[in-house]
């Protein structure tokens, strides 16, 4: 299976994906995040949900990738205390407070990705795509 980074938003090189494909991508990513939070033997907080971390396989079946910032916890410890993690533009507000982080942080990031899927454009202007702040 050949996988590549998604182009959820349109560009001059690639057209915006049609609604059925966008729906399948959104549903697939939502299911993947739900699996990480609810069905894994351990609780996984991804910490970096963004379009660049979604790979498309055959028939636009999405795979969530890049678990470099992820937190793995026991099911009974479904909160995490950590330094800020993620990519600017997709980071949940909880990361700026000294409160424990829950799966809601990933859901917030997915909400921003979903807005991009629906609108077909970025939610923010990224000045230099090569510069990311991973802590």
TrEMBL record:
**InterPro entries listed in its UniProt record:** Kinase-like_dom_sf, Prot_kinase_dom, Ser/Thr_kinase_AS
> Sorted alphabetically, which SUPFAM superfamilies does this protein's record hold?
Protein kinase-like (PK-like)
The protein's topology relative to the membrane is: Single-pass membrane protein
Q: Which UniProt keywords apply?
A: Kinase, Membrane, Signal, Transferase, Transmembrane, Transmembrane helix
Question: Which residue range or ranges hold the Protein kinase domain?
Answer: 1-135
**Transmembrane helix: is it a keyword of this entry?**
yes
- Identify the Pfam families for this entry: Pkinase
* UniProt GO cellular component terms: membrane
- Its main localization is membrane
Q: Name one GO molecular function term.
A: kinase activity
Q: Where is the signal peptide?
A: none
Compartments where located = Membrane
Q: Which domain of life is it from?
A: Eukaryota
Kindly provide the name given to this protein in its UniProt entry.
Protein kinase superfamily protein
Q: Which organism is it from?
A: Forsythia ovata
């Amino acid at each position: 299976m050949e996988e590549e980074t998604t182009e959820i938003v349109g560009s001059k090189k690639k057209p915006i994906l049609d609604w059925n494909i966008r729906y399948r991508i959104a549903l697939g990513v939502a299911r993947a995040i739900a699996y990480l939070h609810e069905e894994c033997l351990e609780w996984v907080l991804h910490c970096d949900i963004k379009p660049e971390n979604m790979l498309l396989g055959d028939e636009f079946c999405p795979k969530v990738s890049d678990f470099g910032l992820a937190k793995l916890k026991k099911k009974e410890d479904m909160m995490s205390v950590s330094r800020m993690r993620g990519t600017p533009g997709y980071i949940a507000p909880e990361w700026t407070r000294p409160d424990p982080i829950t799966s809601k942080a990933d859901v917030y990031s997915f909400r921003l990705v979903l807005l991009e899927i629906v609108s077909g454009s970025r939610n923010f202007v990224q000045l230099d795509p090569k510069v990311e702040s991973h802590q």
